[in-house]
Amino acid sequence: MTLASSKRWVAVILLISIGLRFIGLNQINGPVFDEVFYPQYGLLYLQGEDFFYAHPPLANYLYAFAIWAYSLLPWVNIESYQTIGLSSIEPISYRWINALLGSLLCLIIYGICFLLTKNRMFAILTSILVAIEGSLIVDSRIALANTFLLTFGFTGLYFLLRFYANQGGWYNLIVSGVFMAMAVSVKWSGLGFLLAAVCFALLTINNKETGYKKLTLSNCIYYGLIILITYVAIFLPDTYLNPNFGFFEKHQQILSYHQTMVTGNEHPYCSKWYTWPTMFRPIGYFFESTPINNGNTASYFKAIHLFPNPFIYWFSSLSIIFMMIQFAINPLINSIQNQKELMLKGFICFGYLANFLPWAFVERCLFLYHYQTASIFSFLALAWYLSQLLNSKKLQYRSIFVLTAIVILVSFLYWLPLQMGFLMPDYEFYRRMWFNSWI
């Protein structure tokens, strides 16, 4: 694939990603699911009110900025933040920032894949999966913090890879550290990105002839300081706006909250961490039923579910398992090409495990969206094997690629109404619920 054709593909993918995230963004007129929290916190910042929150403050800042920036548009009339409630604000005022950052995620993933392999086809296939995957679409259209976490974390990994690939020097390490701190400042689960970064850095120690810099003690110290300083700095505005508690007291509050919050299966959409790769329990964000006034009992449903593309999840789960087996049994490969492939597989496998296995030790109620970071690493595994099938000289392998691509595309279109909130007859809704656990 030429550079010119890859640029055209990337432009098309970006336009599709933007369309899926911005079209009809305001159709649900009011807060959905946890939108009653994050945008509300942003509004409280603008109103100068004290409040308690269960996560670091960066997402709250971003929603305060989103609401403020939207209010500057000439057709928007918000007389006073002091008297207005969240229900009185157009939802697009706090959703647009998720849609924007979520749209850009496919570009970030493209950059990561290309840095790792210089394989444009692999990078394009991965960016397509990220652009059309259902759970990523939904959380880019709803004002929840998950999209911030993904965008900042993977951006941090991108610049870290640029540093290790000798593209841009220390500037990349600084930018990577800032974005890593931003990910952790959205949710502490962003530490999974840092763990993935550590694993990748350790991989470079024994890897030969790949062009990567080696891990040094000074690199680790500088990187850690950048992350720590940025993380502390992000809390400073909050200590001014929410002055009742200092930096350490806020961390004690957050930790205490997560230790005592909902446990087990007390929430109807709780799910066990080991069920996430199979998409066992999607999450209902919004549901509205409109009866048909013709004497029948039928209704039209408008629903928004955090509903991943089942086949992308299932295929990618098989792919990451296969890749981990390959990585485990083929550690002693000496050619330059295979050493680079070994680095790719190590990055994917360790990135997946670093963002998946820690959830096994969490006793609180967990949800499918906690798997999103790990799922993107599994998408890389799926895209890698799809690119190998596509580039194969054997017709049967290319046929498998075509069949897989068709299944993914058809399933994307089939379940899109549940992700975009399209109105549908009740029987169409239930037709898409293949298992009782999906309802």
Structural key phrases:
62% helix; 5% strand; three-stranded antiparallel sheet
| Helix-strand pattern | HHHHHHHHHHHEEHHHHEH
Query: What low-confidence regions span 5 or more consecutive residues with pLDDT below 50?
Result: none
User: What is the mean predicted local confidence, pLDDT?
Assistant: 88
Q: Approximately how much helix is present in the residues?
A: 55-70%
Please identify the oligomeric state: single chain
Could you say which overall geometry the principal axes of the C-alpha atoms support?
Answer: globular
Strand tally, please?
Answer: 3
Structural class: mainly alpha
Main sheet?
3 strands, antiparallel
Count of individual helical segments:
16
The domain count comes to 1
Membrane topology: Multi-pass membrane protein
Keywords: Glycosyltransferase, Membrane, Transferase, Transmembrane, Transmembrane helix
Pfam families: PMT (PF02366), PMT_4TMC (PF16192)
Family: Belongs to the glycosyltransferase 39 family.
Secondary structure elements and pairings:
Blueprint: H1 3-22, H2 38-47, H3 58-71, H4 92-117, H5 120-132, H6 134-141, H7 146-164, H8 170-184, H9 191-206, H10 217-241, H11 247-260, E1 283-291, E2 299-306, H12 310-329, H13 336-356, H14 372-391, H15 395-420, E3 423-425, H16 426-431
Antiparallel strand pairs: 1-2, 2-3
Helix pairs in contact: 1-4, 1-5, 1-6, 2-3, 3-4, 4-5, 4-6, 4-7, 5-14, 6-15, 7-8, 7-9, 8-10, 9-13, 12-13, 12-14, 13-14, 14-15
